[in-house]
Amino acid sequence: MKTTNSSDISSQFKGMGTTQMNGFRTKRMLLAGAFAFAFTTACATGPRPTPVAMNAVEKPAATVPTTPAPVVGEKGDANNLFAEALKAYEAGDLDAARKGFEQVVAKEPKTLNAQFNLGVIAEKQGRPADARAAYEKVLFLDPAHTPSVMNLGLMHRHDGQFEEAIALYTKALQTPGHEHDEPVLNGLAATYRLAGKLDEAEVTGRRVLARSKDNPEAYKTLALVAYDRGQYRLAELLVVNARKVAEKDPAISNTLGMIYLKMDDRPRALAQFQKAVSLDDNFAAAHLNLGALALSYRDYAGAERAFAKALALDPEGVDGQLYLAYALDGQKGLDPKKGVAAGEAFEKVLARHSDQPEAVCGAGWAYASDRAGFEKAIAFLDRCKELGATSAQDKQLITAKVQGLQNMLKNPPAPAPAAATAEAEGEPKKEGAAATGGAGSSVMNQLPQDTSAPEQAPSEATGEATGEAPAAEGTQATEAAPAAPAP
Question: Half-sphere exposure of 11 toward its Cβ, with a 13 Å CA cutoff?
């Protein structure tokens, strides 16, 4: 998935010079990454596509009709085929479900939900092009078919195609009878924010709350708009309003954690990220933020665990893969094999983005930690040296490093020392290496645990004290993308 916030991961690391090339980052840099994680992964953790019932939308219509009672038909008719396909889907047999829905569409080409469900299955099977085609077939017949609008819009947002998503939502809202479709409006507001159109996002969020004053998605998006504008007290107020009506939503705690980080209140931020995980252990954004916070404390082992969990939940998360590489790289001074693992993680990033500078250079320095990776290290360091972003000082370091590696490769391997260090390889010594992820408890667990995040909205005086004007109340927050309709 592409980064979907206006300040993506790569931009956080440009211009870091020697520090960036050697894989050593300051706390400020790491916290910048934490925010990028939250915005990126909120998209990734949106509701997964869900199949819908047989006759919810049978033909193009100005309004979506209510679902009729199930019709019992002869074996092999469209209704029975749909029911069998849905049963196969629920049992996890996606191939059988796909075949069944294809049979339904062959018999009844305007059975829109069967076509939609083919898109759902294609997404689950890793066939995004087929999923898009399936949703587009539905929307050709009914531009306001909400499940297709939401899933296709989410795909556009995942790929950074914000204008396409905006056009999709706008067309659905222009369909008679769908002008106030809340899920679509929330999706539109969230996309406006991701596209950097904060005024439009705010207006659309207000539009939702004008008809549904307790809509948590609207409050969440407006909170992120305030966050993007640097109005952190206002953002906190809006998130707390969302919590009043959706206290079990992990995205709310995650967003509140992001706000507290911006307010330089790490203990409360940590408590909120942990709360998000306690509410839903499958919420990848919170695991990513916990990992970023662990990196800022040089708790590399803790960061590795958090990022590994996030990647297990979202294998396509390039940002999580990049930061997992950093976490592994931070441990190579104690265990050179971690450097090789870091190099492999950087290579996985490059498989998606072949010219990402931090991944190219990071792979070179990571592989240089162990003899088994020397040849790859030389190749990546040579590539790093040729990058336009590489400073003259970094080029000198790389030249010396490559010469050292080449000399070592010419000689038989020496007996392994009791404890290998990056400094022995000619690389600058990493501060706090002894605190990284060996034995002992996680640094994160030693932080003050402040779970007293306000459950009630702060007083209006809080916002006034920062000079922030009362802002609109509004639409979807944390980019936990609008929910696909329930079956």
Answer: 9
